[in-house]
Structures are given as structure tokens and as C-alpha cells.
Design brief:
Blueprint: E1 2-3, E2 15-19, E3 28-32, E4 36-51, H1 64-67, E5 71-73, H2 78-86, H3 88-91, E6 96-102, E7 106-120
Length: 122
């Protein structure tokens, strides 16, 4: 996991949740620590959300005492490799990114193409 520089990256155990419309293109991740942030993805292709206390994800382990961050990208994840293999024809050179949000209530993983917008939410 690589540190993803966001305005909230150093918040330890923030509230993390998603909001989604009828399809993944309407997905937003909310991160609330000192402030509430909305993270929107140009083109989300997959999402995983899990209660942090029950996330038995064998694909990664973060030692919080060393990193103490809540936002990461994961350039060499097995999930990313699987998607790149399956979607190779559709990607056409577009970078597919794996984003990880570690929260005090939920862990959220997003696989997305294109830009990411981070803004203060009301």
C-alpha cells in the first residue's frame, strides 16, 4: 500500500461510508474526521465495503502503528491485476487504480478509472 495524499490522510480511524445511486458511476466515498470530505470517482468499476472489525481481508495488512494513515493506493494488488486482465480491451490505456480507505467503522476499497475529485461536503 502506498500513502495517498488526501486532505484527510492522517486522520486515524475516521468515519468512512459510501453513497451510491443506481450504478457505480454515481458512487461517492465520505470520510469524516475533523471535517467531512466527499470523494467522487470519474468511473468506478468495483467497490468493496466491510465493517472494519470484521474485515478479514487476507489481501492486505496495514500496521497502523507504523503508517497511521487512512487513505492509500495499491499499485500491485491482486484485485487490480485481475481487473486489468479481465478488462484489458476496455481499458485502452486508461489507468485503473485501486483506492483503499481505512476507517473506524468501515474499510472501503474502490477500483476506478479516470480522475478523482475530493471536496468538502456539507
Amino acid at each position: 500500500l502506498l500513502a495517498w495524499e488526501t486532505p484527510f490522510m492522517s486522520h486515524l480511524f475516521p468515519n468512512v461510508w459510501i453513497s451510491m445511486g443506481a450504478h457505480l458511476g454515481e458512487l461517492s466515498v465520505f470520510v469524516e474526521g475533523e471535517k467531512r470530505w466527499r470523494v467522487s470517482f470519474e468511473s468506478a468499476v468495483a467497490v468493496k465495503i466491510c465493517d472494519e472489525s470484521f474485515d478479514q481481508n487476507a489481501r492486505f495488512h496495514v500496521e497502523r502503528d507504523r503508517q497511521q494513515l487512512c487513505s492509500y493506493t495499491w499499485a500491485d494488488s491482486s484485485w487490480l491485476r485481475e481487473f486489468q486482465t479481465e478488462l484489458a480491451e476496455l481499458l485502452e490505456g486508461s489507468p485503473l487504480c485501486h483506492y483503499v480507505f481505512l476507517g473506524g467503522n468501515h474499510n472501503v476499497e474502490i477500483m476506478a478509472l479516470g480522475s478523482v475529485e475530493i471536496e468538502l461536503a456539507s
